[in-house]
Specification:
about 450 residues, alpha+beta, 9-stranded mixed β-sheet, 5-stranded mixed β-sheet
């Protein structure tokens, strides 16, 4: 069989990378649960018409067809491109069994048919949180979301060496109110062009607004001037008002964003920044919007994002407004793992290799391993009854720090890094805490 060729955009980690990912996911989900979010999982596919209903994303959808489907058997299905659209369907379908406001987290694969590049993939893992209400949801939840995100990224920075982050925040009401104050009706088209600000720069955005949306030069430059405003405190309010545009929706958005920045600044100054170029291209956002940059890796773009949506889920009688945030786990980790910035202290969970004296006594080694595992110590039994030197080298290649000798007879354990070997009892011995499991380290 010929050597297989990798499929672009579908990253696969070696065991060391996967151990890093597992520990990052464990840190993320444990922090979610500390904030009271409950886990759910949704199916991988949704009706294609439902996936294509929100935002400009039809070109991103992977379509799923059963090879032997009968004509007219079922509607066309697509793999979900995010976790928000399937979550909206989930809320509608299960609303009778949920307590509102409902706090959910969800960690799953998603698929997008876009051009692969560093930080952008066709298959990747997302970790989402959402708070959803029935008919209404208090504004203070918009502030809660970035505080959860700060806790997550703070833990990843402290415990695993991930870079610190900056969470950039805007409010759709602020932007749309400003555009309406300029006499612009197609505010969604303006938001979608302004969303390209960081990629193409302000001059190109002006061209897009005038040539594609039909704005006048004065209108386009005012929109770009708004997008250029950023501050770590509430001073952005004065900067916006200095542009001389007024509208009721603009004032509401300014008030909401100022409140968020004030509270977030009290929790961790400088990490949540008002950045009025943040637009978020998808059209279901209606209020606060968030994007997150890894400091030192800004070229990756936003690695976590989200916002407020007031009408994503509705059955015609009841509306379920919400606010959510999505961590691009693969987007964050794949470049860091691929470049060796993040690694694990060993490539296997095992802390101990139980040596085998002879194949006839393998049962004693298996018994010792079982007793160690009963106390939560990950271990494995040597695959062959080689000379002890070869068994030690086998453990070294796998990064296993300890080798157990004399199973069931004269039990002892050797730290193969220091060479120290001491008598040990399988029912009492413990490895040092730092050797219990692989740890994430910076390369």
């Amino acid at each position: 069989m010929a050597r297989p060729t990798p499929i672009s955009g579908f990253p696969e980690f070696l065991p060391t990378g996967r151990l890093v990912e597992n520990q990052v996911l464990a840190a993320i989900t444990s922090t979610f649960e500390l904030h009271g979010f409950a886990p759910i999982e949704t199916r991988a596919v949704e009706p294609l018409e439902q996936l294509a209903r929100k935002g400009e994303i039809d070109k991103e959808i992977y379509v799923v067809r059963r090879l032997h489907a009968q004509e007219g058997e079922a509607d066309e299905l697509g793999l979900h491109f995010d976790l928000t659209v399937p979550f909206a369907r989930y809320v509608l379908e299960h609303s009778g069994h949920l307590n509102f406001p409902f706090r959910r987290y969800q960690v799953q694969k998603v698929w997008r048919g876009e051009r692969p590049q560093e930080g952008r993939y066709r298959e990747f893992t997302q970790a989402d949180i959402d708070i959803v209400g029935r008919d209404q949801l208090a504004d203070h939840h918009d502030v809660e979301i970035p505080l959860v995100a700060l806790d997550v990224f703070g833990k990843l920075h402290r415990d695993m060496g991930l870079p610190p982050v900056s969470i950039r925040v805007n409010n759709r009401k602020l932007s749309e109110g400003f555009y309406r104050g300029l006499g612009i009706e197609d505010t969604a088209a303006v938001l979608q062009r302004v969303d390209k600000y960081d990629k193409v720069g302000p001059d190109v955005v002006v061209e897009l607004l005038t040539e594609q949306v039909g704005l006048g030069q004065t209108q386009a430059r005012a929109c770009v001037a708004l997008a250029g405003i950023s501050s770590e405190d509430e001073s952005f309010v004065d900067q916006v008002q200095a542009l001389g545009v007024t509208h009721e929706m603009l004032e509401e958005g300014l008030t909401d964003l100022a409140s968020l920045i004030r509270i977030a600044r009290g929790a961790e100054a400088g990490r949540v920044v008002a950045d009025l170029r943040i637009a978020r291209g998808l059209d279901y956002y209606t209020g606060t919007v968030y994007e997150t940059l890894l400091l030192g890796s800004e070229k990756l773009g936003s690695v976590a994002s989200g916002g407020r949506y007031d009408s994503l889920a509705s059955d015609g009688r009841t509306t379920f407004p919400g606010v959510g945030y999505s961590f691009g786990v693969t987007r964050i980790l794949a470049p860091l793992i691929g470049k060796g910035v993040l690694s694990a202290t060993r490539s296997v969970p095992s802390a101990v290799l139980v040596a085998v004296d002879a194949e006839e006594t393998r049962d004693r080694a298996i018994s010792v391993a079982r007793r160690l595992r009963q106390r939560g110590i990950a271990c494995e039994v040597a695959p062959r009854a080689d000379k002890f030197g070869r068994q030690i080298r086998f453990a070294e290649r796998r990064g296993i720090p300890f080798v157990w000798f004399g199973a069931g007879l004269e039990d002892s354990v050797k730290d193969i890094r220091s060479g120290e070997q001491l008598p040990a009892d399988p029912d009492a011995w413990l490895p040092p805490i730092e050797d219990t499991a692989p740890r994430v380290v910076r390369g």
